[in-house]
Amino acid sequence: MGRKAKVTTGPGQALIKRHVHAANDRKQGMMTGGRESKPLESLIDVRDLDEVMEQAELTGRILSSVNPLLPELLITPETDIDTLEDQKEERRAEEALHRSSLTIPRRPKWHPTMSTQQLDLQERQAFLNWRRGLAALENNEKLVLTPFEKNLDIWRQLWRVLERCDLVVMVVDARNPLFYQCPDLEAYVKEIDPNRKTMLLLNKADLLTRDVRRKWATYFKKQRISFLFWSAKAATALLEDKAQSLQSAASPVSEERKEERESDDEEIAVLGREELLHHLQQQAEAISVSQKTAVQVSIHHHLDTERSNLTSGDEEGENGVSTSTAPARVVVGFVGYPNVGKSSTINALIGGKKTGVTSTPGKTKHFQTLIISDSLMLCDCPGLVFPSFTSSRSEMVAAGVLPIDRMMDHRGPIQVVASQIPRETLESIYGFKLPTPKPYEPQNRSPTAAELLRAYAQSRGQVSSSGLPDETRASRQILKDYLNGKLLYCYLPPNEEEINGSRVPRSPSLQLLRPTTNFSQAQALELSRDK
């Protein structure tokens, strides 16, 4: 009889493995300054229990009998939000009153002599105070704060990018720019260095007509916001030699858009790869020169005040330093919401796939620096969901900010699509007939989410295991068509009366421009097929 094999499982082995893992974690903590080595993941939806544990970790407290004091909780009791028009107006007024309190976290001041533990503790404390400030806003029953990024390590990536860059480019979706714009980010860049600037890069601008681009250009010029129109998808297609195949399929729409391209003004033209690189490098070099000039002026002022203590050799050294005004390699950083095209833009500018690209938000985990030439370097930042008031969760899913594949409620985002895309356009593109409104209902009402999902699933033969139309699968495909441009839509800038010399709230003041307003039905169908 052979001997039995030694059993390697059981309570004893589990305890030994746990002891070994604990020793490795302690060793890793000493190497990383006391921080746990966790994979960098975006945290937007956090449960109440996770809120308590996370805050305890941020404050460095352990909840036990030795330390029974609980920190101030970030949990806010749920309140019922009425949808009456008067309460909506009251909520908008309250949002305008507290808009200055809706900020992004700042990195506390530091100096090279600080240890890793001191810097980590200082950043955690500043981030905790920022979270408590937003929790105070959530306690206001008239305000509804949308989901936002709650992972400190993700914000640390943004801090590093902003400190490195000479020019910060905020990539936004051209179909709804104000939804993706973060005004406080521009203010934070100015706090880091008054000479630095931010610029809006309106991606997917090829989905807009020339008239809509001109209206947005007029609005941004009045607001004194630098902007450029761009399409990463079109630039990538040109790099992959797909432009010839697109031009060979002659169509009235392609010829019309070609004529528009030739007649476009410089400020509303959709830039190509070389043009965008030239604009970015030109502006970044101008910022770099202004920074060096400001430093030299400060040095001259300091030397003039203490010239009596300087030797002649020091004066010659001063003269040698002051003549150096040639800019070194400038850095351009790309920031913004997830899934707006930051990595796709960088890949198009470089001419190859250097950063990972996917339709799921949050692909980029760490900031990356990519050298274009001896005088230009690009920096890609992970996407961040900035805190805001006016956006609902359904709108954020429909906009691609939150992952489509992880949504629990599929009818809410589909209702956003159904309210923005006309009934006739949905029927023409998908080739089905939506149920007509009842006689007692408004005949011009938008289709409901249930009507759209059932019609789509039945026309495609998508049936769930219960024998009913598979609404979950249908909702994911419709939302992807909505994001990719197959279902065309765009927003117009706010009216003149709503501006009043200051920036306005985002979505409530925007006017939706449906495709049938500026696009004929044939144009919408042809453009959707091209996309």
TrEMBL record:
Gene3D superfamilies documented for this protein: P-loop containing nucleotide triphosphate hydrolases (3.40.50.300)
Ribonucleoprotein recorded as keyword: no
Superkingdom assignment: Eukaryota
Cellular compartment(s): Cytoplasm
One Pfam assignment: MMR_HSR1
SUPFAM superfamilies found in the cross-reference section: P-loop containing nucleoside triphosphate hydrolases
Keyword Metal-binding: no
CP-type G domain segment(s): 155-387
Keywords: Cytoplasm, GTP-binding, Hydrolase, Nucleotide-binding
Chain spans, region Disordered: 304-323
InterPro entries: G_CP_dom, GNL1-like, GTP-bd, P-loop_NTPase
Protein name as it appears in the record: CP-type G domain-containing protein
Native source species: Sphagnum troendelagicum
Lineage: Eukaryota, Viridiplantae, Streptophyta, Embryophyta, Bryophyta
